[in-house]
Every structure is written in C-alpha cells, then in structure tokens.
Specification:
2 domains, Glutaredoxin, mainly alpha, 8 helices
C-alpha cells in the first residue's frame, strides 16, 4: 500500500501513525497538494490527502474511511477500538471531534493564507474560530471526565486527539491557549514522545501564503 500526502496534514499523519501501530506495511510518498499538484493529480485526480493506493490499484480517500477499511481486513483482536460498546461510542465521539477540530483549523488557515486579504470575510472567520474552539473544548471535557479510557496509546481516540492538538498548536495556538486545555496538552505531549509519533513528525511545507 502507498500512503500519499504530506505529514504536516493531521489527516495524513493520523493514517501513517495508525497504520504503523496496527503493524500494517505501507510506503509513504510525501506528495504535496500544493507544490506538486500535478504529480498528486496523476495518482488521484481528486487531489485529496490522504490518499491510500491499495496493492490492486484501488484509490481510497478520507482518513477515517481509510482506517475503517484497513481494520476491516485485520483480525478483530488487532482493532484499536474498545470492545465495550459504551467506551467505543465515547472514542468515536472524541475522534469525530478531533477530526472536526482539524477541519475547522484548516478552513481558518486557508481563509487567512490563501484568500487575498481584501476578500477575506471576517464573520466567516469568527464563525469557524468558534467552531474549532468548541470542538477542542469538547475533547478536553471528555478527556478530563474519562481520563482512564485514554491512558493507553493503542487507541484511535488517543492518536486522533494527540495529533489534532499538536496540529492546532503549531498553526493556531493564539486561538486555543494550552492553559485552557491541560488534559489535551498532557495527552498530546505523551503521544508525541512515543516512538511511532516520533517516526512520523509533522513535516511539510505548510499552507502557502496567498494573502496580500
């Protein structure tokens, strides 16, 4: 399998880290949707990261669907989801909130960096900033209330939340003060010290600036 995309994308990084934790072999190709658009387009005409190319040539997209497919091919014992239904629902909630937080961060960054300043719509930025704050505040509450559930590293929820928080802090720390998110800061710090997170650092060119 080939994972296409830059690791500065939290979605690409989530897939890379999770595949490694699952012991699923893959090769990573650091192709940018910006600087190497045409190269990415030849692999996947939609140019969406992450892209996973299966051994038979099938192209998959969307980090959650990619990981759902991969886990469906593995023995149930290898799953990174809890066996208990209530715990698994909570993990789904944390993953969905983490992914939503990343999506809103990306929307905010794209509006600021890619749209010319004279065309930026401040009410939209205010709305998106509020959404991303609510997403991370909700993750913080879940981690505070259910700390034991996220005390182990082989967990979709711990991986997704750790990566999401690292991404948000690298790009929009001014909107999400660490002091207001102590549980997330502890979780992300712990995950970033694991060998797998270190193996896949969030390297890449970032979002090019198109503002004036």
């Amino acid at each position: 399998m080939r994972l296409i995309g830059m690791l500065d994308s939290p979605f690409v990084r989530r897939v890379a880290v999770t595949l490694d934790v699952l012991d699923v072999p893959f090769t990573h190709e650091a192709v940018s949707v910006f600087s190497t658009f045409e190269k990415f387009q030849r692999i996947n005409p939609v140019v969406k990261a992450p892209t996973l190319v299966l051994d038979d040539g099938t192209v998959l997209m969307d980090s959650s669907l990619i990981l759902a497919y991969v886990e469906s091919t593995l023995p149930a014992a290898q799953s990174l989801w809890s066996k208990d239904g209530a715990a698994r629902a909570l993990e789904y909630r944390v993953v969905s909130l983490s992914v939503a937080g990343c999506e809103k961060c990306a929307q905010y960054i794209y509006e600021r960096n890619l749209r010319p300043q004279q065309f930026q719509f401040e009410p939209w930025l205010t709305r998106v900033a509020g959404q991303l704050r609510e997403a991370f505040a909700a993750v913080e509450r879940e981690l505070t209330t259910h700390a034991l559930l996220f005390s182990h590293d082989r967990s979709h929820a711990a991986i997704a939340a750790g990566i999401a928080w690292s991404f948000s802090q690298s790009m929009l720390a001014q909107l999400l003060p660490a002091a207001a998110h102590p549980a997330l800061s502890r979780l992300s710090g712990r995950m970033e010290r694991t060998s797998t997170f270190i193996k896949y650092p969030p390297d890449g060119p970032g979002v090019p600036s198109g503002s004036v």
